Amino acid sequence: MGSEYAIEMLGITKRFPGIIANDNITLQLRRGEIHALLGENGAGKSTLMSVLFGLYQPEEGIIKKDGNVVKINDPNDANALGIGMVHQHFKLVECFTVLDNIILGVEPTGKFGLLKKDEARARVIELSKRYGLQVDPDAKISDITVGMQQRTEILKMLYRDNEILIFDEPTAVLTPQEIDELMEIMRNLRDEGKSILFISHKLAEIMAVADRCTVLRKGKYIGTVNTADVTMEQLSSMMVGRDVNFHVEKKPCHPGKVILHVEDMTVASKVHHNNAVKHVSFDVRAGEIVCIAGIDGNGQTELVYGLSGLEPLASGKIELMGKDITKATIRERNANGMSHIPEDRHKHGLVLDFSLEDDIVLQRYYEKDFTTPTQFLRRGNIRKYAEKLIQQYDIRSGQGAVTVTRAMSGGNQQKAIIAREIDKNPDLLIAVQPTRGLDVGAIEYIHKKIVEERDAGKGVLLVSLELDEVLDVSDRILVMYEGEIVGELDPKKTTPEEMGLYMAGAKRDPSLGVKKEG
What we know:
Helix content is 32%, strand content 25%. It has 17 helices and 20 strands. A six-stranded mixed β-sheet has the order 6-7-8-3-9-10, sandwiched between helices. A six-stranded mixed β-sheet has the order 16-17-18-13-19-20, sandwiched between helices. Helix 14 (410-423) packs parallel to helix 15. 45% of the residues are buried.
């Protein structure tokens, strides 16, 4: 049989301008095991996996497959070796369908090179049923939720019969139910003999599903442990070099005046003929964190688009600080005291080819601090402001303020958006999945910042798919199901099970007076 290891990465070093992303790292993946890779944002996890998948070439070190040294020049080499990867930031063609994305590069063809899509569709449907990854093969990527895009990526890998599967932050965009399903899928794949590398920040998931765990910190190898032999606290301490508080510390809230008033709001759906948000009404007051909870795809995305001005309302009214902003532009909403941490940081949060400093002033470049009366940018001021936020929020980037945002890790991109939005000193902070893809240390910090905003008398609307986050951070929970608010819950009095019933549509609060559509 040869080596007990399916993959060995020995002494891997990878450098980028101003940073050693991987510094002499060794990682050994056994056959038929789930091996977790744990580390802070920017610790070098995704870089190491990108080296294994052929996206980067290491300056030092070797890779062995089944005991033999291999050279992986590009992802085609990786695929030929049976290595597949689901990237943290999906590699999908937006204007293609789900099916086209899955078969891209391995299209089944018949005579005269004609595509045999029916065969491929049948196989994709069979795979999606077998692994509980329900997707619509004919839906366009641009029209489906991030959760669905995630499933498309997983199916892409399964379609290619890969035996070594790399999951880069696979649960960052999934609901609790979908996470449980994915864990089950991963266990089934392992039992079928596949070897899985699983990058995650979520310690509970690593403890639940991984056999072993390798920890990286600031690009260096810290150690490999059997998950059965360690506690979550020990793992988090290995990861960030200090003890982390897993519980959000906050005083009781004292809601004040209404900051955001939403009345009978309806937003059309781009995917189907029904409305995505149906006659929704609620208030967010000063000094409270209101959380919109629900399974992904139940109208939360469209609700936020309507509030932030990314989509027009079909009907209804929005007031911010008593002012009607229903038809206001995005810039007007920003100027009137709204901040928005978007769900999709690449699509709506950042211009990836801009420098970090330009992304930080993206919404404020025209203010007199950053622009002269003759419309020239005050570069010195922009640099100084960016450097202040980089230090304050511990945004790690190889070349500081001039780093191209695309070159930063996903977690550090997220920190840049959070820094920009909170530092605007908004009256209303809309935070959608604010801790998606962040490590425990960064999550602790972001939660503290959100609570600070609340305590400073701001209104916070949190939209989260993380049950722990919903219950721990919010003062009031509104549950969305099929575009309607079906329950209002007190986080101190409810349970995950009760929330789950509302989220699945099995329970509904009749006092909310939900209107039915004709």
